[in-house]
From TrEMBL:
Catalytic reaction equation(s): 2 a phenolic donor + H2O2 = 2 a phenolic radical donor + 2 H2O
GO annotation terms (biological process): hydrogen peroxide catabolic process; response to oxidative stress
Region (Disordered): 321-348
Cysteines paired by S-S bonds: 36-115, 69-74, 121-322, 200-232
Site, Transition state stabilizer: residue positions: 63
Protein name per UniProt: Peroxidase
Keyword Signal: yes
Record EC number: 1.11.1.7
Cofactors demanded by this protein: heme b; Ca(2+)
Domain Plant heme peroxidase family profile positions: 26-326
Positions contributing to Ca(2+) 2 binding: 194, 244, 252
Family the UniProt entry places it in: Belongs to the peroxidase family. Classical plant (class III) peroxidase subfamily.
């Protein structure tokens, strides 16, 4: 009999658990399975078409996700346009060569047609980056969705939260630690440079005036330095060069092989050889015959990065346009005789009573037939 009473009491409490659980919201796998079941398929379809004609954008969209997450969190602040009274992140000097905004806008348009007001711009960035990896022969990474969009963006935040391309290994490790990311996360996420390109001005000092010496960086392979000099003149502000000297269109181990060959393009790439732990990882991947370890490590670090500062629950909003915050809702017109508010408390009470009745009936049946 005692066990019957305990189980009956639990069943009577089930309606309460159901009511409480319905209010929860968080970043989770398949967050749009009910509200927009084709969301991820729509993103993947658009990305497939885009990268088929512009494969270089894969690296650009990975970078877009990175610069978004490290400044204010993964809440699409990088997408907001500047206004008359504010210079936004996208117009900061460090972000002047960030690309991919039109891709996000294109995907947002498709999603708004399918599910108006449901999918956030922050999730579109994350999914586009994820699909860029998959479509470049990299791993298919499961990521949580359900992020919401922020309502602010300031260029002043960028230099405080993004390391420069000339950062030392100590600076890089310290920077990543601010976000609870380890030296391993640093060297693993740097592997994203296996796809994409960089502008000449981001590394030209290594060719022509390293550390103000008027000479080139001695850590650059001589033949590679010659090739880069042919691609980039001293004041070149427009040309793009592959980040991976071996194969910049496939998500593979070529980046790490390039580092061991003194072909790391950016100072921050070459810096990975200056720390024992990051150096060890570079050498292991450069000598590996399989990308499996790197793929698994990258998936883990990528998922961690994608949760930095994510807005959930009632925080933030779902932007209608990714480049601007939603306008404030119009105030209701004043009415001389407003109708009395609906008796929500009575409705809630009735709903709860219905749930409670179910629990009581189940309890009764259990007591009769247990």
């Amino acid at each position: 009999m005692d066990s019957k009473i305990i189980i009956a009491a639990f069943l009577s409490f089930v309606p309460v658990l159901l009511l409480l659980g319905a209010t929860e919201a968080h970043v989770e796998y398949g967050a749009y399975n009910i509200s927009c079941p084709n969301a991820e398929a729509i993103v993947f379809q658009e990305m497939t078409q885009i990268l088929a004609t512009s494969p270089d954008l894969a690296g650009s969209l990975l970078r877009l996700h990175y610069v978004d997450c490290f400044v204010r969190g993964c809440e699409a602040s990088i997408l907001l346009n500047s206004t008359a009274g504010n210079t936004a992140e996208k117009d900061a000097d460090m972000n002047k060569d960030v690309r991919g905004y039109d891709v996000i806008d294109r995907i947002k348009t498709k999603l708004e047609e399918a599910c108006p007001g449901i999918v956030s711009c922050a999730d579109i960035i994350a999914l586009a980056a994820r699909d860029s990896i998959r479509l470049s022969n990299g791993p298919n990474i499961p990521i949580g969705t359900g992020r919401r969009d922020g309502n602010g963006s300031s260029a002043a935040d960028v230099p405080l939260n993004l390391p420069s391309a000339n950062a030392s290994i100590a600076q890089l490790i310290s920077f990543f630690a601010k976000y609870n990311l380890t030296a391993k996360d640093l060297v693993v996420l740097s592997g994203a440079h296996t796809i994409g390109k960089a502008h000449c001005y981001s590394f030209s000092d290594r060719l022509y005036n390293y550390n103000g010496s008027g000479n080139s960086d001695p850590r650059l392979d001589a033949s590679y330095k010659t090739l880069l000099s042919q691609e980039c003149s001293p004041n070149d502000m427009t040309s793009l060069v592959p980040l991976d000297a071996n194969n910049a269109t496939a998500f593979d181990l070529g980046y790490y092989s390039g580092l061991t060959q003194m072909k790391g393009l950016l100072t921050s790439d070459a810096a990975l050889l200056d720390d024992a732990s990051t150096n060890s990882y570079v050498l292991r991947q450069a000598n590996s015959t399989s990308p499996n370890e790197f793929f698994a490590d990258f998936a883990t670090s990528f998922m961690i990065m994608g949760k930095i500062g994510a807005l959930t629950h009632s925080k933030g909003e779902i932007r209608r346009q990714c480049s601007a915050v939603n306008p404030p809702s119009p105030s209701p017109s004043p009415s001389p005789s407003p109708p009395p508010p609906p008796n929500n408390s009575a409705e809630k009470k009735n709903a709860f009573s219905s749930f409670f009745s179910v629990g009581v009936v189940l309890s009764y049946l259990l007591l009769q037939y247990y």
